[in-house]
Amino acid sequence: MLNSPQIRQQGSTMPFGNTHNQMKMKYTSEQEYPDLSKHNNHMAKILTPAMYERLRSKQTPSGFTLDDVIQTGVDNPGHPFIMTVGCVAGDEETYEVFKELLDPVIEDRHGGYKPSDKHKTDLNPSNLKGGDDLDSNYVLSSRVRTGRSVRGFCLPPHCSRGERRAVEKLSIEALASLSGDLKGKYYALKNMTEAEQQQLIDDHFLFDKPVSPLLLASGMGRDWPDARGIWHNDNKTFLVWVNEEDHLRVISMQKGGNMKEVFDRFCTGLTKIETLFKERSHAFMWNEHLGYVLTCPSNLGTGLRAGVHVKLPNMSKHAKFEEVLKKLRLQKRGTGGVDTAAVGGVFDISNADRLGFSEVELVQMVVDGVKLLVEMEKKLEKGQSIDDIMPAQK
Amino acid sequence: MAKNCHNDLKMKYSVDEEFPDLSLHNNHMAKVLNKEIYGKLRGKSTPSGFTLDDVIQTGVDNPGHPFIMTVGCVAGDEESYEFFKDLLDPIISDRHGGYKPTDKHKTDLNFENLKGGDDLDPNYVLSSRVRTGRSIKGFTLPPHNSRGERRGIEKLSIEALSSLEGEFKGKYYPLSGMTDAEQEQLINDHFLFDKPVSPLLTCAGMARDWPDGRGIWHNDNKTFLVWVNEEDHLRVISMQLGGNMKEVFRRFCVGLQKIEEIFKKHNHGFMWNEHLGYILTCPSNLGTGLRGGVHVKLPKLSTHAKFEEILTRLRLQKRGTGGVDTASVGGVFDISNADRLGSSEVAQVQLVVDGVKLMVEMEKKLEKGESIDGMIPAQK
Asked: Where are the annotated segments for Disordered (chain A) (predicted)?
């Protein structure tokens, strides 16, 4: 949800959190409680004065506080297109220490996911059925991304320069040992040449200093561009962002509709990287309730967004387009990412869920759903009805 | 161990691992900070919990500025200037013309000590303005204060300001509850301040919880204005069209002192000490925190080869009429005192009054095609 570097908002950069003020405990909970009267995000829906009172004196072992968790949601009342989360984690323990706030936020955001639920991880690409035959006259490109947090370090809203550099160092080591079609190179943001920068922009690989106030208000832009970088394989089909919104963002992509191959590479690469990190005694943050632990509660579970850029000029104008997407558990975005509108009838269609379904299940939904949407598009082109192929709720 | 920056894991890393990369930086903090100072100070925090990394974050995040040499650090509370003196004293010295840790600062808000200033030619001097900031003892500063503290400051400010009378009688407009009509009016009067967009400010944490606890007060005459909880607890501004700086300064001193008395009665005087004068968020505003200036038409003088030199000798600085980050428009410049610390309010406004008077004379000479070589001032 907060992952798009393409969020461009008018106006300001935003402050980061400085919420470790000892004097605040001299004030009552009521005096300190944020004004959320104009707010519309998950945090604002859930937080109450009583909850604030119970949690405000707590902190995680690394010193992350409730005010740190919620600052971005206080500073950003709402968003025109999307229901934002309005809170972040500063470390793995945040989800435990502040569960009273975060469990209901997670439940609200992830379709009723309960504190007692277990999340299933499945990164075995041979469990995916089909996906290699999406019509490339319609499906222009396919992509799967996720995030990973490295255990033993605080998360981007809270990590120090020393921690961030250590994450970078570990990442460089791990990625440098990849071989075959995953062999690649790391480009540190801080000493990129102009030529390298231009190439990465042309390839649509370069991420820039966040401009979104959603990200900046939580402290993720601190010390930019120190210890941030981009790694990609020589084939330009596998890409890793280091220290942007999460410790790692892993992306597999290619032109056309062969989602199977994209997912295959995704799983293989990810599993290799995880092994390399484990060998260095820094596994990925994961637990059986929340799956992979990431900075934003919206990315828990698989942290996976699998999607295609697909031409649906007729389908997208159909009265039931939104309903079809909902039934298929898919969401649409413009081709510029989460904050954009579609251009020329081309949409970014991806899985809506993150938590409570496995990676294979989510990609399966995209594969099956997009296949159906393309069939519908073809029917509408021929002036035929699509009423008889409307899907059931998945 | 005292609570540290806010990320207690960072002390596991060495100084080398944590020291910021300042290789592309050009601000006062980057000039002064080194690994030795960093190593000495990184384990400290003020009683309210402000740490070295908090002090320098804005300077790390903002390597430089095209027009000005930025300070690159802020205080989070009164104690910052003491706890982090190893960093801040050299910065203060660098920024304030060699001001030493042992120097004493003189405060003089007696407007009667100003000579002249009531006759700047309004054909050239379009408007006159004096501003300063004040911090309220017992609260931490805008980079660090909590919502409760900020609201406490606002509450006290409203009480103090609403008890003003006569030429100072006025009204408070909280940013949170402003109507569209009020907002429009305040914009038209050029009174409204908006959420900071400058990364210099936002990276220091000053815009948190916006617009909670922020507001604008001004008198009915619209000549005396107070900003609450923007970059400092209070910003106090006296202004009017034309060149009567004397009157502007009189109102400034009288109003400021009235406000200070009321805060003192509530046991919350202004932060001040005999070394640093008035304590403000940015080290550049220590001392008087005063910027006295005019908008003045100098189309000829401003293109003269010696314009910059004259300003330097007069201890003045120029800005565009949009403020610190802007360029001048139509030959109209914002001319104000360059100094803040080490000279009094009266002395600084005197420099503006005398200096602007001279520059207007120079402008008139140049208009007539005459030379100004005989008028170049000595270094003040």
From this structure: 1-20, 109-130
Bridge partners of residue B318, in order along the sequence: B335
Rounded to 5°, angle at Cα B28 from B49 and B293: 100
Q: How far is A228 from chain B (nearest CA, A)?
A: 13
Of the partner residues B8, B47, B151, the one whose CB lies closest to the CB of residue A63: B8
Q: What is the DSSP string of B275-313?
A: TTEE--SSGGG-BT--EEEEEEE-TTGGGSTTHHHHHHH
SS3 state of residue B345: helix
The CB-side HSE value for B80 (13 A sphere, CA atoms) comes to 28
Nearest Cα residue in chain A from B138: A23
Candidates B147, B150, B325: best to mutate against A (most CBs of A within 10 A) is B147
Helices then strands (H, E): number in chain B? 12, 10
Contacts of A158 in chain B (CB under 8 A): 6-7
Structure tokens at A6: 């393409």
Q: Record the tokens describing residue B304, joined without a space.
A: 């003269």
> Do A31 and B148 lie within an 8 Å CB cutoff?
yes
Nearest by CB to B49, from A21, A33, A217: name it.
A21
The pLDDT score that the predictor gives to residue A339 is 59
User: Is B146's CB within 8 Å of A17's CB?
Assistant: no
Q: Do B61 and A21 touch (CB under 8 A)?
A: no
Q: Where are the domains of chain A?
A: 125-382
Quote the mean pLDDT of chain B: 93
Between CA B165 and CA B162 the distance in angstroms is 8
Q: How far are the Cα atoms of B59, B198, B316 from residue B65, in angstroms, in the given order?
A: 11, 11, 20
Nearest residue to A91 (alpha-carbon basis) of A201, A246, A211, A237? A246
- SS3 breakdown of chain B: % helix, strand, coil, rounded to 5? 35, 15, 45
Fold classified for A125-382: Creatine Kinase; Chain A, domain 2 (3.30.590)
Q: What is the DSSP string of A82-98?
A: S-------SSTTHHHHT
Strands B224-228 and B291-297 come out as: unpaired
pLDDT in tens, B91-139: 999 999 999 999 999 999 999 999 999 999 999 999 999 999 999 999 9
Query: Are B45 and B5 within 8 A, CB to CB?
Result: yes
ipTM: 0.88
Q: Say if the Cβ atoms of B197 and A11 lie within 8 Å.
A: yes
| CA neighbor of B51 nearest in space, from B40, B62, B43 | B43
DSSP string, B74-102: --SSTTHHHHTHHHHHHHHHHHTTT--TT
Neighbouring residues of B7: CB distance < 8 A, sequence distance ≥ 6: A62, A63, A154, A158, A159, A160, A163
Going along chain B from its start, the domains and CATH numbers come out as 5-96 (1.10.135.10), 111-368 (3.30.590.10)
Q: What order do you get walking across the sheet with B170-174 strand by strand?
A: B170-174, B215-219, B224-228, B234-241, B125-134, B291-297, B332-337, B316-319
Global pTM reads 0.90
Q: State the distance between the two ends of chain B, measured CA to CA, in whole angstroms.
A: 49
**B77, two tokens:** 């509370």
Q: Where are the alpha helices (DSSP H) in chain A?
A: 29-32, 42-46, 49-55, 66-75, 94-97, 99-109, 161-176, 194-202, 213-216, 259-279, 321-327, 359-381
Question: Could you tell me which of B318, B165, B293 has the C-alpha nearest to residue B239?
Answer: B293
Token pair belonging to B241: 């069209």
What are the average pLDDT values for consecutive 10-residue runs of chain A, which has 394 residues?
Answer: 31 40 90 95 97 96 95 90 91 98 97 96 97 94 97 96 97 94 95 90 83 88 96 95 96 96 97 94 96 97 97 95 97 75 87 97 98 97 95 94
CA A198 to chain centre: 25
Distances B272 to A66, B70, B277, B286, B308 between C-alpha atoms, Å? 33, 23, 5, 9, 33
Q: Compute the average pLDDT of residues B236-241.
A: 95
